[in-house]
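Worked example (supplementary).
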Amino acid sequence: MTEITKDPRVLIYFAAVFAALVILAPMPGDGGLHSRLKYGLDLEGGSWLQLKLQGAIIQPQVDPINILDKQFSDALGRPVEVEWRPESTDYQITVDGKASKTLVEDLGYPQAIVTPRGNATKISIEASPIGVIMNYLETSLESDVKYLGSDPLSFEVRSNVTRESLEAILAQVGGTLAPGDAGFSEGVTEETVDETKQVLDRKLNRLGLQDIKVRVVDNKFILIDLAGVNVADAQEIVGKPGVFEIRIQTKGNESMHVLYGDEIVDVSLPQGDQSGNWGVPFTLSEEGALAFQKAAIDTGATRNRMDHEVSMHLDNELIFSAPLAPDLAASLDVAPLRSMVAQVGGDSQRAHELYIHLREGALPVNVEIIGSGQVTAALGNQFKKQVLIAGIMAILAVGLVIYFRYREPKIVVPMVATSFSEVLMILALAAALKWQLDLPAIAGIIAVIGTGVDHLVIITDELLYEGKMPSGKIYLARLSSAFGIIMAAAATTIAAMLPLFAMGFGAFKSFALVTIFGVLIGVFIARPAYGRIIGRIMQPGE
Amino acid sequence: MDPETFISKYEPRKMVAISLAVLAVALSILGFTYIKTGSPVNLGVEFTGGTIVTVPVVESEGEIAAKLAGYPVLDIRDVGHRYMIQMGPMDDAEYKQLSTMIDAEYQDPEIKYMGPVYSTRLQEQAKTWIPLSFVFMAVVVFLIFRTPFVALTVILAAFSDIMITAAAMNITGVKLSLGTVAALLMLIGYSVDSNILLNNRVLKRKGRTEDKVLGAFRTGIAMTSTTFSAIFALFLVSAFSYLVSSSFTQINILFDISVVLIFGLLAGLMNTWVMNSNALRWYLARPKKSGARRQKR
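After joint prediction of all chains, the assembly is encoded as:
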């Protein structure tokens, strides 16, 4: 047998344990010592949301002429004639009698030219066939529709829609969906998922939340982890995209519409003044400013500001309401004003929320919350203490059982030490790769202690088959036989663990990772060294 | 009974038959549950959809039930200084109202909500992946042993472990959650561990079969008892540490995992040392005709 201190397996093992200790050593940081270990939300406290992006990718098969025919004959109440003129890329619609421009605009064609010709009216719409189909889908679904490609013609519908409802809508204009999954598949494009993720990222980052993880699963689900936020607030922040609206109170509980979020061109970071009052400055577009001034004068808010509060709404829910400031009321009486500040008082958190709502009218697609939860930091801390106790107890219990089995400190000590070092190496690997240790990961570590000791028992028993440690060739043959068993067992364990990566949106990924890497560390680093060391320690006559 | 008599005294076929009978009972329990509920095991909230809330105990069960009237409460249970409340599906607005109320009323609440989309998807995944996991394991076992009889006994033992454990879950009311699924998959690993040891010892070494089985049995018992002790520690801490300190409570996920592994390890003992060791004794002792090995599959 080679000298134990020169054996590469033993050297690698000690190097790995040393590296693990270095990685795990607590480092001085803010407010005391910190280890590099990262904990999951269930141990650290926080909340998580699982969102499903609503939408579908569709391939409609429909003639745009039928669409225009139906739209215009329905709106005008009499038959129309539709003609596609490829040379000027426009549609010409002819109808008896008069047709107003507003009616055409209401149908979604503001650029149309309406020309009376004797007893008839000619309407020319500069639009491509694709544009007409898209417009039809948008107005009848009341949803954003994104054009994807022309061959075959496909769109992304950005709201919750079923195949049946789409087919019904298309059937009205003599169209249908392409057969099979190509015609209708739930989900949105990768770009849309990315876009949504970015809006969420920005939204959350602006709140100054730390350690936010926004992950995408299957191009359809977005998972968000928020440390230090309760679930109601998290839902408030994330799940509330929608229509932003400013209104002015007219009389009592009644109010009138002033403008929508698209008239807000810029929003600045919330600012606090000396007395601790917080406000969110924002800038209106020119049209927005005119509309605001007009509404302020019409309602009488400029003269009697206390009775005519300005309110902000998101999805028809009141998020802010305050009277005009005296100086603002006075200047609005004279001229429109584009820059304003929404004052919220002493609550800086509320100012931040308002800021986000003003900034992001909506996510690109509607989202549905399919799962969520929270653990508070204090509870997470308790769990951490409890699992630490569980870990220590597990190792002690294992040590005790081993002692009863072998009654030989020369075996018990190296075995428990090896098992413990395996845990250290897994933890170090987790810290180095920035895995989050959550409760499933802890369960995985304890499971690895279980298999790890199993394997050490196999090695020991195999070597001590005849009651004493053999040497030379027999020792090596026994060792390789033991490794035959534990390698086979490790391979099956790993194979059985693989599915956990895919399940439950990765909720048990940490368990699978810890178990698989724990087994690998065990069979390739710790157990080979143990085989050598135990062989040396138990060598008779030394 | 000493290990030697246990290993060698009984008629192998009888022992195998007893183990298979236990498997048959387990399968009929699962079948019965399937007929009754439409699923072979009782599904937990993760698979059915719903809400779980845990809050510190500051009032009686009646008081908290009254507070939650109007919500679809299914079950309220004391899990050690905390109540665990299970609720059925509710809509977004209701859930938001609930979580805001819970956050305002209680210190350190834990809330978990699984919508129908989540749970349906999880069910689909479980139906695909758990069998696939088993297939992966079976392929690896076949690659290792190559002898069909031996590979099949190892696979049968793992299968029986999982079925008996699942039946035990049904009897004791442990529900299928992500945690228990992980534990069931983990069982595959443990079960194969001791079976590989047994087969390796018995097939590759020279000597009397009974002696080799006995040697393997001693090692196997040591293995199972160490694993058992580690898991039992996990079980004690997750289930009973609240008795020690008032700040502790049950940790459901660890409790579920440890209970399932305890059942599974016990089932594993039977399947390895009652069923498979005797199947091997029978296999090695059978009259050797030429080509018999091929026929006896």
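Two points are worth noting when inspecting this output. Chain A has a mean pLDDT of 83. Chain A touches chain B through 75 residues (CB under 8 Å).
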